[in-house]
Amino acid sequence: MSLSSQGAMTQVEELQAACYDVARETMRGRRPVDADEIQRLAERFFELATEQMQYVEGRGHPGAVVLRAVRYLGGAHAILPTRDTVFWFADMLSVLVELACPHSQPSPGNAQFYADLVRSLTEALASLADPGVADSPAGG
């Protein structure tokens, strides 16, 4: 894996970096911080994310969906109690990938949940477009 002439990272390199960031975040409270432990955890996350990326791409969706899901996990769910366990990462990544790239049509019973997701995500994205909302205590 090499950098392009412009210095941009490949998608695989970005995924590796995102997995490392998630691993570092989950180990943040551990003292002393062992860089080798973080790297081993990042490699385990990367293996899982790569499997998901292959699955997504095999179904005709862009692999970047998985990269964005890993970044989301790092910012929203990589909390200290998870430490060096990978189960939370595998389960959450699987759910995010399924929501982003459903493998089947929703059943009538699940359609309302999909509508809930659309509504709340639309509101979240709208708050990003409105700086006043994003800067307010309720929006931040």
Describe the structure using short key phrases.
disordered C terminus, mainly alpha, disordered N terminus, globular, 6 helices, 67% helix, 140 residues
Question: How would you describe what is shown here?
Answer:
This protein is mainly alpha-helical and 140 residues long. The chain has two domains: 93 residues, no CATH class; 35 residues. The chain has six helices and no strands. The longest helix has 24 residues. The N and C termini lie far apart (37 Å). The N terminus and C terminus are likely disordered.
- What letter string, H or E per element, gives the SSE order? HHHHHH
Domain unit count: 2
Radius of gyration of CA atoms, rounded to a whole number: 17 Å
Outline the low-pLDDT stretches. 1-5, 133-140
Mean pLDDT: 83
State the major sheet. none
Helical stretch tally: 6
Structural class: mainly alpha
What is the number of strand segments? Answer: 0
Cα(first) to Cα(last) distance is 37 Å
The residue fraction in helices comes out at: 55-70%
What is the oligomeric state here? single chain
Query: What share of residues are in beta strands?
Result: under 5%
Question: What characteristic shape results from the CA principal axes?
Answer: globular
